[in-house]
Design brief:
flat, OB fold (Dihydrolipoamide Acetyltransferase, E2P), 6-stranded antiparallel β-sheet, SH3 type barrels, mainly beta, 3 domains, 16 strands
């Protein structure tokens, strides 16, 4: 058991008898009121998210989390397939679990999969990934009075904004936290 103040993003807890992973957490202390902890959790069994509030001194049951390094192999109609580089076992994850991460998944990308009670719960991506630009309009000379950006489609199908000098076929670094352009690779 841990105090609600000790909860952190990525921790696993048991709430209403069901295991869940903490997606976001905020410690709040409003004016005349007692401090509380506001959490957004995702239930492992159903995949649904919930917004809950704990008193700062309330005890919360934590659950052990297993972390496993995997490499992304490919995706198909069954889901997203990851391989364990040590045992060569393949693990298939459902599209709901991959969620926003699918825009950054390229072949052989190393990710960390969090499992709770033997069930995969969340994918942790590296802080940045290198992706190839597949579609991008040409920048017009003279449009650079300010920091002008243009849309570019990446090899994963994700569209981000990049500077005018980026052309099709170039490799760029993209932040996995917010999907922003970081620079050329």
């Amino acid at each position: 058991m841990a105090a609600a103040n000790d909860l952190r993003k990525g921790m696993a807890i048991r709430y209403n008898g069901n295991p869940a992973i903490v997606l976001d957490i905020q410690h709040r202390t409003p004016g005349n009121l007692r401090a509380f902890v506001q959490c957004i959790i995702r239930y492992i069994g159903t995949g649904k998210s919930a917004d809950i509030r704990f008193s700062s001194t309330e005890k919360v049951e934590t659950v052990d989390v297993n972390r496993q390094q995997l490499e992304f192999s490919y995706s198909d109609h069954q889901g997203y397939h990851f391989m364990d580089p040590e045992t060569y076992e393949t693990i298939t994850l459902h599209e709901d679990l991959v969620a926003e991460s699918k825009g950054y998944l390229v072949e052989n990308l190393k990710v960390e999969v969090l499992s709770i009670e033997g069930r995969p719960a969340q994918i942790l991506l590296p802080s940045s990934v290198t992706l190839k630009v597949t579609e991008s309009a040409d920048g017009v000379r003279g449009d650079s009075a300010n920091n002008v950006q243009k849309p570019a489609k990446l090899e994963t199908g994700k569209t981000i904004t990049v500077p005018l000098f980026i052309k099709e076929g170039e490799l760029i670094k993209v932040s996995t936290a917010d999907g922003s352009y970081l620079g050329r690779a």
